């Protein structure tokens, strides 16, 4: 009798402990560290309050390291419960069968912008919940522009060349134009027609860069910027676009910096830095062109240990009020229809260009351009800045060769 009572009591205690065992949700992301908090501390606290049975264990892994860290876990059947992916990883891991189909019936899938859904949907399966669209354009120091008598960010080519001349006359360095990134943004904004949509055919090798009138003209426009004293091409060619260039803008040493909106937060922390984020001046539009990058999203690996908790995480970010926290921290746009803009007023001209339809989805983020083309763009444009007298064909042929090699 005593033995049976003890056995029953022990079983009840063990069962109660098991019933209340805390689920540890293993989440891997390249957001959420000190440099890019992305609102994650607040969001995790809110998620755990709504799901007291779940504790989130967020591991930060830089994007450049994700390709090394996650594949062994996917292949061994011991993946994280949730992992951050971008369009390239969505395709690579999705086609390999490592990601769970999240389905297409969910409300967030129905609300997704068609152009984003087209990028992420694979053979009728939705493997990734997108989180953001982030802009790339020009950061403009408004105090330096004011010293040259300019009150608004330049959004047309004529305004840009006029601003460069006025700034140079005042002894102010007009513009950063590093071959590794800045030049690529300007050339893309002047080579990719938002209306014609020429990127896919060029990236597939159906059309050729060397024969494309827009890209030939884009390189000519770089020469026009040099003639307008926007920058010294030899000084800019090898400039580090990720460290030196932002620091030059942060320090108030240059008026215009082509870069991504992910810098807004850090620039806002600089006391006295009065800046705006504007679209890239382009011959295609008098409003400038917004260069939108399809950002990361959440995916649930096929062998996730806590699949139900992972679904709860995805459902949590599907709520507009939760995603808004992420977007506001990231200074990014929503990939869903009908969402309120979380961008600050300093990005008003960029938002206006988007609202007017003067925008492109950056073709490296949509996979219209092959991955191998990006480093070729960067290297060849650096060479172009050092040899402006060489024919456009020398640069554009390298892009066609990179596309051909990737087919």
TrEMBL record:
A GO CC term attached to the entry:
periplasmic space
| Location(s), subcellular | Periplasm
Q: Which domain of life does the UniProt lineage start with?
A: Bacteria
Q: What main location does UniProt list? A: periplasm
List the signal peptide residues: 1-21
Supply the alphabetized keyword list: Cell membrane, Lipoprotein, Membrane, Palmitate, Signal
The record, for InterPro entries, names: Bact_solute-bd_prot1 (IPR050490), SBP (IPR006059)
Q: Which Pfam families match?
A: SBP_bac_1
Q: Does the keyword Lipoprotein apply?
A: yes
Q: Does the keyword Cell inner membrane apply?
A: no
Protein family per UniProt: Belongs to the bacterial solute-binding protein 1 family.
PANTHER family assigned to the protein according to its UniProt record, in alphabetical order: ARABINOSE-BINDING PROTEIN-RELATED, POLYGALACTURONAN_RHAMNOGALACTURONAN-BINDING PROTEIN YTCQ
Protein name per its UniProtKB record? Carbohydrate ABC transporter substrate-binding protein, CUT1 family
Q: What organism is this sequence from?
A: Paracoccus homiensis
Its lineage opens with: Bacteria, Pseudomonadati, Pseudomonadota, Alphaproteobacteria, Rhodobacterales
